[in-house]
Amino acid sequence: MTSQTSELHCNTFNSSHVQFSPDSDCATHFGYAKIGSLRSERHPCAPQSTLHEPLQHDSATRYPPTRASGPVAMMKDKADYSLYLVTDSTKPILGDRDLVHVVEQALLGGVTLVQYRDKTSDTGALISTARAIHEKCKAHNIPLLVNDRVDVALAVGCEGVHIGQDDMSVSSARQLLGPDKIIGATVSSVEEARIAVEQGADYLGIGTLYATQTKKNTKDIIGINGIRGILRYLDTADEASKKIKTVCIGGVNATNIPLIIHQLFAPTPSNRSPKTIDGVAVVSAIIASPDPKSSSQTLLNLVHSPPPPFKSPSALPTFWLENDTEEITHVLRTALAATKAVKSKTPLTHNMTNLVVQNFAANIALALGASPIMANYGPEATDLANLPGTAAALVINMGSVNPDGLANYTQAIRAYNAAGRPIIFDPVGAAATHVRRTAVSHLLAAGYFDLIKGNEREILQVARATGFAVTDADETSRVQRGVDSGAPLFSLREKAHVVSMLARRERNVVLMTGAVDVISDGDRTYSISNGHAYLGLVTGSGCTLGTTLSAYLAAYPKDKLLAGVAGLLHFEVAAQRAAAREDVRGPGSFVPAFIDEVFRIGEEVGEGKMDWEGVARVECVKGVEEGAVLRLE
């Protein structure tokens, strides 16, 4: 028991990683999605390893030849969208350079599809430039599409067009171009996607994800959840919708593309391999680059790289043992190993938390055997996340919310994600105010969290921010009085449903605290009934649980769920032992005794004088039904 008081037209895209796994079974299990599907000879700039083959396509090779022996009729079913270059001829992006030369360098670097976009030149100039670009594309066996101008595409004889919502319809373009040309459409809603598929589009440019510098008058910024909704519709509609290719568009850059690819692959208990994007589009990352070839090579390598550090799979498989007794024995044995790891590794726990609890949290970290640093300044995070030979984790505690704080949190999140170090997110008071609800959405968009902990209303707000709706919810589930947890809303199985659904979709660990804590990684769900009521009478006890969890996830990364269970047991059994002491008369005398017992448990486990049998109240929660509380909108 714990508590707290206290259109693909002109968007800017840059490059970074995408996450993949060597084989489809493993990829499905760990939640990785592969984008792109080239089906001809391997490009020399591509990685030479053949480990990371696409999940949803045949086994033919993925990189086209750099030179064709002659003119090639590019069939649209052979097009690859993984690295989609959209040109920009404007002075701020292109400068004084020659666009055709820039595109040629990008082709040498490995871009897989080119869209020529120019909204200002006259028709003659458009045709002349498009022909020159087309010659370069044909030499590399890469399709060229023209933005909007079907007449220019016909005059040039290129492979297709891209149609925006303000341009002619897809069906009209199809009538003019015929069945063998590639036609793409910009969409920002389910209805626009439905119409585009119905009219025969070959791919969708879905967005706008974020506001961009190249398109400042964007009217449809739909974010991650908007794109998720469109992908989910396509995945559940007719066969044409399931098969249509998709590209993520709008504000993608080097700092956010790993997270975007991760977030847009959003499994549920009933669908572990949902439809995801087939590529990312890039403008300024290549067009504005002083070395377009090198930038394209870098992007191509990153697109086809293994999973980024923040989403490396656990070293241990995640499965239930058939017998609950054996499962719990395994959990408790692992918990002991995790406690010993904390004592032996002295992990760094970097707390970005409110001033009220910093002293308490630092003392808990020391009692655990961890090394605390209470540093709220974002620029420090890169050095702390990359300390050599040191296990480290970050705690983002949303106790104090202001613009400067959010900026610091964001910088730290990105640093720890890049270093592959775990992050614990404690959305304190997430449902209490509009400011806090907005902050939760901002932080979830900023990076990946390995573990999210909160009470019922806080976790529900996180679920809403990730695209879930709460079934039959009334205002009592939306409103939070300060940071108090409030009256219970759900049964144990309903809580298990919420945390397992959210954990599966976000592919992390979710902990809902209360009289009975429920924790899940989307596959395995446990309830823990240890703790003491005094924890609810002490300011910041829930915040110090976040510190505890950070130490455990840093020291025992092999299984983050069981590391979380171990941290909970250490924390809550210490509370029970402290409350039972004769020198404890209430919450005031409880706090120092609690710190002592946190220390003593670590010492006893390290010396082999204690185990969790007969002490830990852990149970498996199996057979949780989908749709009991949360549903996807």
From TrEMBL:
GO terms for cellular component: cytoplasm. Residues 83-286 form the Thiamine phosphate synthase/TenI domain. Its cofactor is Mg(2+). It comes from Leptosphaeria maculans (strain JN3 / isolate v23.1.3 / race Av1-4-5-6-7-8) (Blackleg fungus). InterPro entries: Aldolase_TIM, Hyethyz_kinase, Ribokinase-like, ThiamineP_synth_sf, ThiamineP_synth_TenI, TMP_synthase. It comes from the Eukaryota. Pathway: Cofactor biosynthesis; thiamine diphosphate biosynthesis; 4-methyl-5-(2-phosphoethyl)-thiazole from 5-(2-hydroxyethyl)-4-methylthiazole: step 1/1; Cofactor biosynthesis; thiamine diphosphate biosynthesis; thiamine phosphate from 4-amino-2-methyl-5-diphosphomethylpyrimidine and 4-methyl-5-(2-phosphoethyl)-thiazole: step 1/1. Keywords: ATP-binding, Kinase, Magnesium, Metal-binding, Nucleotide-binding, Thiamine biosynthesis, Transferase. This is Thiamine phosphate synthase/TenI domain-containing protein. GO terms for molecular function: ATP binding; hydroxyethylthiazole kinase activity; magnesium ion binding; thiamine-phosphate diphosphorylase activity. Residues 43-69 are annotated as: Disordered. The keyword Hydrolase does not apply. It catalyses: 4-methyl-5-(2-phosphooxyethyl)-thiazole + 4-amino-2-methyl-5-(diphosphooxymethyl)pyrimidine + H(+) = thiamine phosphate + diphosphate; 5-(2-hydroxyethyl)-4-methylthiazole + ATP = 4-methyl-5-(2-phosphooxyethyl)-thiazole + ADP + H(+); 2-[(2R,5Z)-2-carboxy-4-methylthiazol-5(2H)-ylidene]ethyl phosphate + 4-amino-2-methyl-5-(diphosphooxymethyl)pyrimidine + 2 H(+) = thiamine phosphate + CO2 + diphosphate; 2-(2-carboxy-4-methylthiazol-5-yl)ethyl phosphate + 4-amino-2-methyl-5-(diphosphooxymethyl)pyrimidine + 2 H(+) = thiamine phosphate + CO2 + diphosphate. Gene3D superfamilies: 3.40.1190.20, Aldolase class I (3.20.20.70). Condenses 4-methyl-5-(beta-hydroxyethyl)thiazole monophosphate (THZ-P) and 2-methyl-4-amino-5-hydroxymethyl pyrimidine pyrophosphate (HMP-PP) to form thiamine monophosphate (TMP). One of its GO terms (biological process) is thiamine biosynthetic process. CDD domains: THZ_kinase, TMP_TenI. In the C-terminal section; belongs to the Thz kinase family. In the N-terminal section; belongs to the thiamine-phosphate synthase family.
